[in-house]
Design brief:
The chain is an alpha/beta fold. The chain has 10 helices and 18 strands. The radius of gyration is 22 Å and the shape is globular.
């Protein structure tokens, strides 16, 4: 089952030639979820050959422009391209009024239903669920109400061993029971323990996205042990006071959170435009948490 993250934007508020502001695509089981939607996101989708009409759910972390100024343009393009499917948008309550006003003043009546889901940035809430995945909010500490998101797979069913089907002559109508962990009773009444004929399900995988935030240890229990963590790292350690004043993090902050949360891998991004390269940011983070990458637009990270 596919589980990967594509970085569409890795810079902070101001775009550069090489780096766009924040946006990401999470692909889980070929379902595409857009996380934040900065200016230029449409171009980045095309550049990465991701079909915008496959996106049915969009998650906006907060209402700073570098996280949602591209949204109305994307909504409009979907409309102009003849979209008919529902589009679900999750974000701060004020975002619904903003989008409705933009549509109203442009005299745009969408071809498709746009369904808005207000989220509470101060709560750790379940906001999306399907058969295989849950998405919850992660309250963050920023200058305006802001939340991250954690994508977590549900526990899968057990896997029936191929040779067991023939060995024990297992009928099809018993397959689901075995996948759910039940023992098997053969035609002669013998009980075969489930673990003899099935393998454990794949381990649960998870991805946590922590957008703009100060160093904030209250998120640690919520992201504990995730496979992949994205945490903003706008500044190097020598700008720590600036980071605190602007409610952002340093690369050392991000690495410290990753270490304390026991995550497998850390991605840092949302870099200040003052940095022509991110080598110093990456070096500072790796001194604390070695398994760190500094993201670049177009990077794809598979969660194995």
């Amino acid at each position: 089952m596919v589980f990967k993250v594509t970085i569409l934007g890795s810079n902070s508020a101001i775009p550069t030639i090489k780096r766009n502001p924040t946006a990401q695509i999470v692909n889980h089981n070929e379902h595409l979820y857009l996380v934040d939607c900065a200016e230029g996101t449409q171009v980045q989708l095309r550049r990465n050959r991701i079909k915008m009409q496959r996106i049915n759910h969009i998650f906006i972390s907060h209402l700073h422009g570098d996280h949602f100024f591209g949204l109305i343009g994307l909504i409009s393009s979907m409309h102009l391209l003849g979209r008919k499917k529902d589009l679900h948008i999750y974000g701060p309550p004020q975002l619904e009024d903003i989008l409705n006003l933009q549509l109203e003043v442009s005299l745009t009546v969408l071809n498709y239903p746009m369904i808005f889901h207000p989220i509470n940035p101060d709560a750790h809430d379940l906001i999306y669920e399907d058969a295989n995945l849950t998405i919850k909010t992660i309250p963050l500490k920023h200058s305006i109400p802001t939340c991250g998101f954690i994508f977590k797979e549900k526990k899968g069913k057990r896997k029936i061993k191929k040779d067991a089907v023939q060995t024990y002559n297992i009928p099809k109508d018993q397959m689901l029971n075995l996948k759910n962990g039940e023992d098997f009773i053969d035609e002669e009444g013998n009980r075969i323990e489930n673990k003899q004929i099935t393998d454990d399900p794949f381990p649960i995988r998870s991805y946590a996205y922590c957008s703009d935030t100060n160093y904030y240890e209250k998120i640690i229990p919520l992201i504990m042990g995730v496979n992949l963590l994205y945490h903003e790292a706008t500044f190097t350690k020598d700008f720590e006071e600036v980071a605190r004043a602007k409610f952002h993090s340093t690369s050392a902050d991000a690495a410290t959170i990753a270490k304390k949360a026991g995550v497998e891998k850390l991605l840092i991004g949302h870099f200040s435009t003052r940095y022509e390269t991110v080598d110093q940011l990456l070096d500072e983070a790796r001194k604390i948490f070695p398994n760190t990458d500094a993201v670049t637009d177009g990077n794809v990270y598979e969660i194995e």
